[in-house]
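Tutorial, part two.
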Amino acid sequence: MKFKADEVTSILQAEINQYRSQLDVAEVGTVLEVGDGIARIYGLSNAMSGEMLEFEDGQQTRGVVFNLEENSVGAIIFGDALKIKEGMNVRALGSLLQVPVGDAMIGRVVNAIGEPVDGKGPIASSERRPIESNAPGIADRQPVKVPLQTGIKAVDAMTPIGRGQRELIIGDRKTGKTTIAIDTIINQRDQNVICVYVAVGQRESSVNEVISVLEKNGAMDYTIVVVAGSSDPAPMQYFAPYAGAALAEYFMYNGKDTLCVYDDLSKQAAAYRQLSLLLRRPPGREAYPGDIFYCHSRLLERAAKLSKEKGGGSMTALPIVETLEGEVSAYIPTNVISITDGQIYLVPDLFYSGVRPAIDVGISVSRVGGNAQIPAMKKIAGSLRLDLAAFRELEAFAQLGTELDKATQQQLDRGYRMVEILKQPQYQPKHVSDQVSIIFAAARGFLDKVPTGQVLAWETEFLTFLRDEKPEVRNQLTEEKKLSDDLDGKLTASCQEFSKRWHAAYEKKLAK
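Running the prediction step on this input gives:
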């Protein structure tokens, strides 16, 4: 067989012309030991804390640098740690852990690293954001003054939340903490607020139930759900809240208002404790590592109302913390209380006695106060907290069986009706104008002669009456947001007219 020199020459010439030198420089280490989702790696001397790693296990499993030690690096593994073996090569990717962000994320359910888990296909998002970023400085913020309406009477009247605030929801398990957060998300339907719900350590059935409630109420149109369930590894549960904050921050820095719910941070703290103990970090109180406070503070400080120069966007944080047997002075609850701008405290006794939401008015507080209320609500609800506190004292006194004078009995009766007014079914948030109207009617004594068991029926019919027969009064309240003398007179007249009609119908019903 003869070679044709011309052909060989032409092929060689073409290959030489097409040659481009490509140098692939990567820092590569070796797995020393692996177990419990943690890998110890030798050779990554220039690795950064929080840097992404890629294990050469055939599936490109990702990890992140968590511990920087003298001779090795401690890394946590995302994915199946059982496929990582000793002696396996690991590449440092030179970038921090990031999640995809943008409008394409809205309406989707993702895991802690931004991968879709809702079965709706890949997310077409070209932008990414590090899950850890610095909180805005003091000069980049402005005071919290714009209300974030939750649609819950007891919250909007007594512990109001402003856009850019951090309000803790705290209480024992099964006291309605998640319900308050979900009601708040549902109430943002026409408020132009992007919502992020982060589920940490929750049962899959509970998360699915929350998602179905959001879908049923049309809330998934403006909501992103980040899920790190109880069956997910500890790294996912630890990083999920930071991923949620990064998703909300993207919209905040683009001038939009956002709401981020962390449900719940006590489970994130437990996941961080697990990781830290596996990496041999020294344990502190309740076996939590010493930097658990920093872990939560750097997350919650990212919530802010940005200055006009920065676009004026906001991120409101609603962290949830679960207590054991009402132990508010435990380590994690006290930490988060000291970081946040107030707390909504839910009590099992109230919950099981039928007062729902079961908010303890005495301990619950909002450090923003009336700044986060519309003027009408501020005026009508100003004395509500004190009246309820006085009612609780009177109620305890009345249980002694002493005879009460007429004024005291009247105060007690009004207190019972106020408690009834503040009850609210779940997933039925109310417009702020309706809240002001019903609290106005109760405070002015229009419910004093209504039987306690009929208060909620009276409320429903009264709000329907205002909407159908007195729309001009409701519209004026919605537009002006102030309780002027003119509007006060119109509301009083409306209450009187409806009250006469209702009592006549009720007496007729009793006569039958």
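The chain has a mean pLDDT of 91. In part three we will examine how such features are distributed along the chain.
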